Amino acid sequence: MILKTLFWGALGALAWTHVGYPAAVRAAARLRPRPVLKGGEQPTVSVIVAAHDEEDVIERRLENLLALDYPADRVEIVVASDASTDATDELVAGVAAREPRVRLVPCPRGGKVAAQDRAVRETKGEIVAFSDANATWAPDALRGLVRSFADPEVAYVCGQLRLERAEGSNREGAYWRYELNVREAESWLHSVTGGNGAIYAVRRSDYAEVDPRFGHDLSFPYLMVQRGRRAVYEPEAVAFERPTPDLEDEYRRKVRMFEHCWAIVLEGRMLRGLDPVYLAALVSHRHLRYASGLLHLAALGANAALLGEGAAYKLLFAGQLAFLALAAARSGLPRYYVLVTWATVEALAGYLRSGVPTVWEKAAGTR
User: What would the pLDDT profile of 259-295 be if each residue is shown by its tens digit?
Assistant: First the structure.
């Protein structure tokens, strides 16, 4: 009885987080939408780019931000250099010498969040927007990003990240389109459960200095909701990035990312003070998703022990082995799913063994 409960419970949790919840949140959003009031105001904005050794892309990033369709006198652009050892600082200083909207904030090596915190303290925009050094924004991205702040309930807005087609074996683009669908429905219904580092913004009055190990992408949305605010998704604010070209590189990137996710899940008090709707979303979309590797191991192990319990268990076990065989044969999406799912397990082991560093390294092939 215990094995059957474990098997069906793990299988049910996997089906819910990957299929049931996305369908349920979209249906609920259609039945009870919670529109965001959007306006044409143009608040002052501080755009912050945290950078560590980004000499290959930093000038391109600055030229892209300087060309945005937004009143020039209402935007300042700050590069928070996290103790860069290459020519990043010199290149930023060169742009700043001819463009007064650009400023360099040198920081001691402390990681992305520490650099962002320091830059926020040294700026004055009503809205603080953030971007990765390797991202590119559409010309109207900033206008789209800030228009939701016309709604007094909104504290955080993340835009739409579009991944360029990977040249190698990575299938992150397919997953990301699925993820954005879920994110859009969450925003319609209540608030998103996660953001992305390429394009997002927060009211200065709502900015929070979080544990440097956590990062903003996962911690900001739930923190805003805990404060009685909303964190929403704006698909009209578009940014572009290159994904890692190969699945093996993406696997290593996911391990590093999931280590931070586990730190937040286990230490960040995510579920405290949430209303039932957002609590269900956070558990369904984040907690169960990060636990998917453990759930698969539980389902496979319990299924193996139940092979003598009837044909259904034999058939389900054969199905699991067949999927693993497809992944081992380097078939596209099955291999992507298995490796990314296993990354959650390796990340948990790494977090429990040695914790999570605050500094970060660039993902291979994304510049």
Answer: 999 999 999 999 999 999 999 999 999 999 999 999 9
The residue type found at 2 is I
Residues 6 or more apart whose CB falls under 8 angstroms from that of 88 comprise: 51, 52, 53, 54, 55, 58, 79, 81
- As a whole-number percent, the residues of the chain with pLDDT over 70 amount to 95
Chain Cα centroid distance, residue 126: 24
Taking a C-beta distance cutoff of 8 angstroms, is the pair 292, 14 a contact?
yes
Torsion of CA 345, 346, 351, 353, to 10 degrees: 120
* Side-chain-side CA neighbours of residue 167 (13 Å): 5
| Average pLDDT of every residue of the chain | 93
Q: Are strands 200-203 and 127-131 parallel, antiparallel or unpaired?
A: antiparallel
Domain 45-269 has CATH 3.90.550.10: yes
Name the strands in the sheet holding 127-131, side by side, starting at the edge strand that comes first in the sequence.
Answer: 102-107, 75-82, 45-51, 127-131, 200-203, 154-163, 230-241, 136-137
pTM assigned to the model: 0.92
Cβ(49)–Cβ(112) below 8 Å: no
As annotated, the residues of the chain forming the CATH 3.90.550.10 domain(s) are 45-269
